[in-house]
Every structure is written in C-alpha cells, then in structure tokens.
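Archive entry: two folds, one per protein. Generate the first.
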Amino acid sequence: MDEFDNADPRHWKWGIFYYNPHDPNLIVKRHIGWGYTLNFAHRATWIFLTIMAAIAIAAMLVKR
C-alpha cells in the first residue's frame, strides 16, 4: 500500500481517526461506510477545530 492509501489500517487511530503526516490532503474519504473525515496529522485540521471551538464558546457567552 502506498503512503496516501487511506484504507491502510496503520493510518487509522482507534479505527475512526485518520492520521497520516505524509498525506497532504486535509479531507479524506472514510475507509468504512460513506462520508469524509479530517486528516488529524494535518496542521490545518487543528486550526480549523480550534476556530470552531472558539466560535461555539463565543456563541454560548454571547447568549448569556
């Protein structure tokens, strides 16, 4: 299997988190079922998740 093969079980942590630091793709197709997931080895994933969490927290604080 090549290093960008998202079906390779070595790149899936606990079977649900895709983690491949050699794969430049931010979004990859899930290996089981349908849909897409994020490459958690990609820096942009963590930036995206941090921004989404900040927006959710800000929305909760504004609603008070």
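Generate the second and append.
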Amino acid sequence: MATTGMHSKRRWTAKILIGILIAIIVIRLVLPYVVLHFANKSLANMDGYYGHIRDIDLAIIRGAYKIDSIYINKQDSATQKQTPFFASKEIDLSVEWKALFKGSVVGELVFRRPYLRFTKDKVEPKEVVKDSADFRKILDKFMPLNINRCELLGGVIQYQDFSSKPNVDIALTDLNLLAQNLRNSYDSSALLPASIHATADVYEGKLRFDARLNPLANAPTFDMSAELNNTNLVKMNDFFQAYAKVDVNDGRFGLYTEVAAKDAEFKGYVKPVIKNLDVLGREDRKDNLLRKLWEAIAGGAGKLFENKNKDQVATKVPFQGRIDNPKTNVWVAITNILQNAFIHAIQPSIDNEISIASVKGDKQEKKTFFQKIFSKDDGKDKKKSK
C-alpha cells in the first residue's frame, strides 16, 4: 500500500511538472502576440502620433525583447493626415548586464537602421524639444528601466521642405552612435562619467562627435568636440538655391567646434572653413539678371574673405557666458574673418584648447582693433572711472 501511494504521489508530481512546463511553453508562445497587441494599441492611441510594430520577439533568459520594423508618424488632428517621423528596422531592449554586475538594474537600447525626419514647420528649436520629449514618453512605455546605454547603427536624420522652390531634401546618413553610462551606473566617481561618440556621412564629408558629460548634474556639465570635414556643397545646391538664392558650382565645407559647460557657465568656439568656393559659372547663363547680381555679391564676398594661398574662407568665433544668457562676440568674429583673409589661414582642425577646466577661466576677452574703435562700452567705462 505504501509503495502504491508513493508511485501515485510521483505520478501526481510528474503531472504537475509537465503541466507547469506546458503552461510555460504556451505562455512563451502566446505572450509575444499579447505584448504586440497592447503595444500597437498604445501606438495607435498616442496624442498627435500614430505608430505600428510588425512583430515582437521575446528573449526571456536574456531579459530582453526585440521590436521588428516599427514606424511612428505625426498625425494632424484636424485632417488626420500622417507624415513620417520615426522608424527603425529593429529595436533591441534589454537589461544592461555590465551595469547589473555593478549592482544597478538599468536598460540598454540598440536601434538598427533608425530614421528621424523633420519638416520645415517642425524644425524650430521649441518644436524639436517638444518632439524629443514626446519621443522619450513613447520610449518609456516600452522600456520600464532607466536607459543607461544606447546605440544607433546605420541611422538617417532627414530634413525636408516641400514649400520651397526648389524643394529641399537633405540628410545625414550612416549615423552610428554609442552613449554609455547615462545613468551613472558605473565609474560613478568621475566628474564626467557618461560618454557619447558618434560618426556620420554628410555629402561626401565625415562628421565626428565626442562628448563626456554628467547627465545627472543639476546644471549642464559636459566637455564636447565635433568636426565636419570635406562636405561637398554642390550636392546641397537645392538648399542654397531655396534659401540663399545662389547656385554653388564648387566648394567644400568643414566645421570644427569645442564646447564645455559647468556650473551654468559655458565656453567654446566654432570654426567654419569653406574651400574652393564658387557660386558663379557656365551653368548660370540662363539665370535672370537679378539672380546673377545676387550670386555675384555672394561670390564677391567669398572672394573678399578668402585666403589666397590656401583658397579657403574661414573664421573662428569664440563664445563664453552663462547657459541662461549666451553671448557671442561679433567683433571677434569680424576681426578673425579679416585676419584669415589677409594674414593667415586657419588650420582645419580642432584646437584642443577647450576643456571642463577652462570654463571658469578669465572672462575678460582681449579687445580687438574693431572693438576698440566701435564698441560703445569703452566710453561708458571711462565715464564710470572718472
């Protein structure tokens, strides 16, 4: 009797285990469809947006799930017309194991072939900030953990204006970005614990961006540099024709900048460089007289401020101030343009002179020749001294 009871108990235990196993398998098979249903329901009922996901795949052991082919459109509340805003071939959302081993439960996101689109009526700074805030709310619905690591692979950022003549359609392509330690989950003793590195293609040119930052600081605290090399201006001719009313027949553009900020103060510079600028040529023979006149003025200005030895237009504009009151010294800009034109060319490279330690440096800028002549502050200062 005891043996029979033991066998019966074992069979009952085996049935329970098999039942649990079957339940786990069923849940594993059904759960992605349930999650997909509720995700698409949320995307379809967003205020001002409409989105859809093709499929969701769960990786329970890894603590992750993958979103396959998502798109989010902006939706006009009156006409219900939709315009593309964001899309991604794949999004991987998971627990970041590196941070988990440090005792922090945070998440990481990997976007493959993401796409972000802005149109003319949505590129004002306030609108971009609003779009970014709304997009973060959307992400929060899908990632319950704080994001500590984010990676973008093969992304595109596009700007379009179909109200202009000609239409403007420009894009930054092959964007690759890696942001780490955004929630300060490791290297917590560092002043700037987080890092961002990004590269992209801009019409035969290369963009590079590097930054160290403290995202959790009360005031913006960062040290960043960026450079854009050898962008072909001819490939952006629709942009110049639409907004500057000129035809660019030749020219290469570069931009170099460093900026650092700490305790609500910032310091930096921006250095644009244009090489082999040409806005007049045989291609312009059919243009009307007024258009040719404007192109001649634009081309003449380029030649006036061009360094003859290196055939480039360049200037360096330093800036310094508080986050709530940014100022750029226009006299320094004018002097640097003329100095570059007639004395020496500014080298197309980052100067490595701005860092987090230089933010609270000497704020008294040396007055330039034009500043001494035209600045009204000098007279006021003399009266005060008397």
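Annotation attached to the second fold: The radius of gyration is 28 Å. Confidence is low (pLDDT under 50) at residues 378-386.
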